[in-house]
From TrEMBL:
Pfam families: AMP-binding. It comes from Phytophthora fragariae. PANTHER family: AMP-BINDING DOMAIN-CONTAINING PROTEIN-RELATED, LONG-CHAIN-FATTY-ACID--COA LIGASE. One of its GO terms (molecular function) is ATP binding. This is AMP-dependent synthetase/ligase domain-containing protein. InterPro entries: AMP-binding_CS (IPR020845), AMP-dep_synth/lig_dom (IPR000873), ANL_N_sf (IPR042099).
Length: 372
């Protein structure tokens, strides 16, 4: 007898009264979820993280500084939740007091993943502003479209992206202020801002202003707009996905259980924060009391970041995984002799043990893979 074609179990049910003339009924399932209707990105940082990091002393955000004399990056430097919250309070207060932003205001950020990016994100959440990230690779067509479409008045910008922004800001009459994430504003940047009649300041200056003029938090509701994530615009005008705080937290809640993340875990942040996937991953890391280490900003140096950070959480894409595989294989082949034999033997042993669910090997991890 042929097997039945209809499902033997019903995994979801229709909510009565939710069907309309143009939309089918909302369906609900019985899957367990830690999502609750009161969740927001603000609560995730200020309340939920405390469940896994009650003292606020776990590593939260880390980054590497490059020695200007040698050009070599150093070890990761870290801040804890206790370090981070006063910075968020000051930056958010500066946004309100100095930039005169009102609840629901649009805040743009145009930079690669970095610690300062997260300061802007969580400061915006504290005051119920809507964050609009721009891919750091966007060009002269997509940038003005997004700035004008949202009518944003302030853009937080990385130094590397500053000239690109100044090249199009004359097309964006709503932009009044550019806040550079780095401290080293040079004379050329100052003159460019003056030429385009745009106020230029640094994030550090904004934070100092906020320290002197503290504004109480104005937390968002779950239904408030958290972010507008735009497409890159490669197939026409960029499209903006409007996501509420409840949307973002619901997406993160999907990962709360299946990732099995623990407070001692470490995530390497390199996938663009302008894409909501990385934002959701970071939300999950924060919820679970774990740590986020930012890459140097150059994918070509990602292997160096991996070796230094030793992350336990590494979301990726197939193209990059292929690149990493090829680089490791080429390195082993180039070493030759006993080194190649050791690598091949250790790799085969790890694959064998992985079939039984063992991710570590006491001998080969120490002899070979600790050298990565």
């Amino acid at each position: 007898m042929a097997p039945p074609t209809a499902p033997m179990k019903q995994f979801s049910y229709e909510l009565e009264g939710t069907a309309t003339a143009t939309h089918g009924a909302v369906r609900m399932g019985h899957l367990k979820s830690r999502f609750t209707s009161d969740m927001t990105l603000y609560k995730n940082l200020h309340e939920f993280r405390r469940k896994s990091d009650p003292n606020g002393s776990n590593k939260l955000f880390g980054w590497r500084k490059t020695d200007p004399s040698t050009g070599k990056p150093g070890a990761y430097e870290w801040v804890t939740l206790n370090d981070f919250l006063p910075v968020v309070e000051a930056a958010a207060s500066g946004m309100s007091h100095n930039l005169k932003l009102q609840r629901g205001a649009i805040v743009g950020v145009f930079a690669k993943n970095c610690y300062q990016w997260s300061i802007v994100e969580h400061s915006a959440s504290r005051m119920a502003y809507t964050l609009v990230p721009l891919y750091d690779t966007l060009g002269a067509v997509a940038i003005p479209f997004i700035l004008n479409h949202t009518e944003m008045s302030v853009v937080f910008c990385g130094k590397e992206q500053f000239k690109t922004l100044m090249g199009v800001v004359h097309e964006c009459p709503s932009v009044k202020t550019v806040v550079q994430l780095e401290d080293d504003v040079d004379e050329e940047e100052t003159l460019l801002a003056q030429e385009h009649k745009v106020k230029l300041m640094t994030l550090s200056q904004l934070i100092e202003d906020g320290k002197q003029n503290v504004v109480p938090a104005d937390p968002p509701l779950p239904s408030d707009l958290a972010t507008i994530c735009y497409t890159s615009g490669t197939t026409g005008d960029p499209k903006g996905a409007m996501l509420t705080h409840a949307n973002m937290m619901a997406a993160a809640a999907c990962a709360f259980d299946f990732t099995l993340m623990l407070p001692m875990d470490v995530h390497l942040s390199y996938l663009p924060l302008a894409h909501c996937f990385e934002r959701v991953i970071q939300t999950t890391v924060i919820y679970n009391g774990a740590a986020i280490g930012f890459y140097l900003g150059d994918v070509r140096l990602l292997m160096d970041d991996l070796a230094e950070l030793q992350p336990t959480v590494f979301p990726s894409v197939p193209r990059l995984l292929n690149r990493i595989h090829d680089k490791i294989s080429q390195g082993a082949a180039a070493a030759g002799g006993i080194k190649k034999w050791l690598f091949d033997t250790a790799y085969a042993a790890k694959k064998f043990y992985l079939k039984d669910g063992y991710k570590t090997h006491a001998f080969w991890d120490f002899v070979v893979f600790s050298k990565a």
